[in-house]
Write a structure and sequence with these properties.
Keywords: Signal. With about 240 residues, the protein is mainly beta. The chain has no helices and 16 strands. Helices cover about 0% and strands about 50% of the residues. The strands form 2 sheets. Strands 1, 3, 4, 5, 6, 7, 11, 13 and 14 form a 9-stranded antiparallel sheet that branches.
Length: about 240
C-alpha cells in the first residue's frame, strides 16, 4: 500500500486502497529536505497476531515515488512477543547489498528491508532513518526503553535523489485484505497503535488527527484520540 502524493489534504483525493486509516505528519521548515528523521510508534494495545501494518511514508527530493517504514505485530514465539520492522523504497533503480533487504516492494520496483525482533509491546519504538553516504539510507529500530538498536536495512537510491521531504502521511493497513476475493468490514480484528510526532534535528514535528478512508468508513469501530505519546488509533472488533 502506498500513496505517491506528498500530502493528500482531503479524503476526496485519496485513491481507493486496502488501508483503513490515514494520518498526516510534518516538520517545521518543511521545504528543506532532511538527512535524518525518526518516527516514534507504540503498539502496547495491538493484538499479537499477523495482519496489521502500522507505517509512516516519506518522499525523497527529486523522486516522485515513496519510501516507508513501520511495524507489524506477529504471534508470540515460545510465549515471547515478536515484532516485524520494515524499511522500503518504491523508487525504481534503488539497490541494496544488505542481507536484510531484497529487490522489489509490494510487487513493484524498489527494495524491501525487514527484520524480526523479540520485544515488549509496551515499549515505544523509534523508527530511525538516516543518510549514511551519498544517496544511501539506513533504517534502524530503536527500543526507546532499553536503548537496544536493530538494523532493519540499508538501500541506495538512484543518482540525483535528495533528502527526505518534510511532510507526508502514515497509515494503518490490514494487509490480508489485499488478496483477491474481497472482505467483510465486520470481520476486521481489533488492534491499536499510537503514532508519535516525527523527530528530526533542528525541526519541530507535528501530527494531524487520524481519519478513516476506504470502503469501510464508519463500519470498523474506528476510534482515535490524542495522548502524551501522540495520536492513538483503535480499529476493529
Amino acid at each position: 500500500m502506498k500513496f505517491t502524493n506528498t500530502i493528500l489534504p482531503t479524503l476526496a483525493l485519496l485513491q481507493p486502497t486496502q488501508a483503513l486509516v490515514g494520518i498526516s505528519w510534518s516538520t517545521s521548515n518543511g521545504s528543506k529536505p532532511l538527512n535524518e528523521i525518526t518516527f516514534p510508534m507504540n503498539v502496547a494495545n495491538a493484538t499479537h497476531e499477523s495482519g496489521y501494518y502500522f507505517a509512516q511514508q516519506f518522499n525523497f527530493a527529486n523522486q516522485e515515488d515513496v519510501g516507508y517504514t513501520g511495524l507489524q505485530p506477529r504471534p508470540n514465539k515460545n510465549s515471547k512477543p515478536q515484532l516485524h520492522a520494515a524499511f522500503s523504497s518504491f523508487i525504481a533503480g534503488t539497490t541494496s547489498a544488505d542481507p536484510n533487504c531484497s529487490d522489489g516492494a509490494d510487487g513493484g520496483a524498489g527494495v524491501s528491508c525487514a527484520v524480526d525482533i523479540e520485544g515488549s509491546y509496551a515499549h515505544t519504538y523509534l523508527l530511525h532513518i538516516n543518510n549514511t553516504a551519498g544517496t544511501t539510507w539506513t533504517g534502524t529500530l530503536i527500543d526507546a526503553v532499553s536503548g537496544n538498536e536493530t538494523r532493519v536495512g540499508s538501500y541506495t537510491l538512484p543518482t540525483g535523489s535528495g533528502g527526505i521531504q518534510g511532510d507526508q502521511m502514515g497509515f494503518v493497513e490490514y494487509y490480508p485484505w489485499n488478496a483477491a476475493g474481497g472482505h467483510s468490514c465486520a470481520d476486521l480484528p481489533r488492534s491499536a497503535v499510537t503514532f508519535g510526532k516525527p523527530v528530526s534535528p533542528g525541526r519541530i514535528g507535528a501530527l494531524k488527527d487520524a481519519y478513516e478512508y476506504g470502503d469501510c468508513v464508519g463500519k470498523v469501530g474506528f476510534e482515535t484520540h490524542r495522548t502524551l505519546r501522540g495520536v492513538e488509533v483503535s480499529i476493529g472488533f
